[in-house]
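Hello,

Our lab assistant flagged a job as stuck in the queue for most of the afternoon. It eventually completed. Since we weren't sure the result was trustworthy after the delay, we are filing this so someone can double-check. Below is the sequence as submitted and the structure that was eventually returned. Let us know if re-running is recommended.
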Amino acid sequence: MAKFNSKITMIFIIVALGCAFVPAFSVEDSEAKSLWDTCLVKITPKCALDIVAVVFGNATFPDSCCHDLVQEGKVCHDTLIKYIADRPALIARESQYLKKSNDLWSHCVAISKTA
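-- returned structure --
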């Protein structure tokens, strides 16, 4: 059963990232281009996957990705998480995802200040 849940979680993460990063599914074309140009280019794909896995799943976040997250910026981070959380399948738990997102941000800011 654990393997089944793990596979479902990975599929969910891939679909969520697809919705977030593919303009046709997430936002209007001009908004998507603006997000891409200002936000998504600042973070590695691996760290982006890790963020989604933490916020929308139960993964642990590697401290090594905190630099990327903080460099991306709070506005970009919040906007991208909100776009994913606004999907019809996720909207019911949006407040939970936004709290996890804020907790992750706070953790990374604290890590960045000590580094």
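-- support follow-up --
The delay was a queue issue, not a problem with the job. The result is valid. Helices lie at 2-21, 23-26, 29-38, 45-56, 66-72, 74-85, 94-114. The chain has one domain: 2-114.
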